[in-house]
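Closing statement on the cytidine-5'-diphosphate sub-project.
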Amino acid sequence: MNLRKIVIAIDGYSACGKSTTAKQVAKIMGYKYIDSGAMYRAVTYYFLEHYVSLTNPKDIENALDRIKITFHVNEDKETETFLNGLKIEKEIRKMRISDQVSQVSALKPVRIAMVNQQRKLGKDKGVVMDGRDIGTVVFPDAELKVFMTADMQVRAFRRQQELLDKDKMVDLLEVMENIHMRDQIDTTRAESPLRKADDAIEINTTHITIDEQVEEVVRQASSKIIQFMR
Ligand code: CDP
């Protein structure tokens, strides 16, 4: 049977478990996973490496013309981010990028360029994309929209653990300050601020396990697919 493919948009605050959930849902459903945050992190990496001034529109436009972001799946089936052919997956997870990414993501030309690429990546559906504006701006017609939340302490602790697993030792307070700062910028910026789409289902991950959140999204996705078969 040829089941109809849908778009699953997962938005929410930093470190709520969006990408962990999105990756596993994509694996179970045989869908493509796109980490839109990695794209903004890659742009930030390029801007920092090339001293692009965030207040010089010409500089920003020129830099965006020179940026090509791609994703490759490695032999461990993990998706890795490449910038102009160079693997930057590890670099973009570092605190120096996390400290600047929300300022870069708030710029209108950056958003226009990334949203264009994200729409191309999802045009054939069968995709799980996570970010801040996927259900509101990138794919407002996504068949399933999920909005994830969790308590700040739990989020900071999980993110610190995740960084430690990647051999990056970061103070809990520093992590907390960073996610608080990013939430603040992401929700108040003029261009596509982070907000829950009216038709999104909300999942609070504070007291549930990864398996439970994955199961919930897969259940919701299956019910959407069944609806479209009727
Ligand atoms: O992993 P985490 O939730 O901490 O962040 P991320 O998904 O890697 O996104 C990093 C940053 O990129 C966010 O804090 C936003 O400033 C920006 N972003 C955005 O503006 N729009 C998106 N669709 C995705 C990320």
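The beta strands are 7-12, 32-35, 69-73, 79-83, 86-87, 127-131, 144-149, 201-204. With this model delivered, the sub-project is considered complete and its resources will be redirected to Aim 3.
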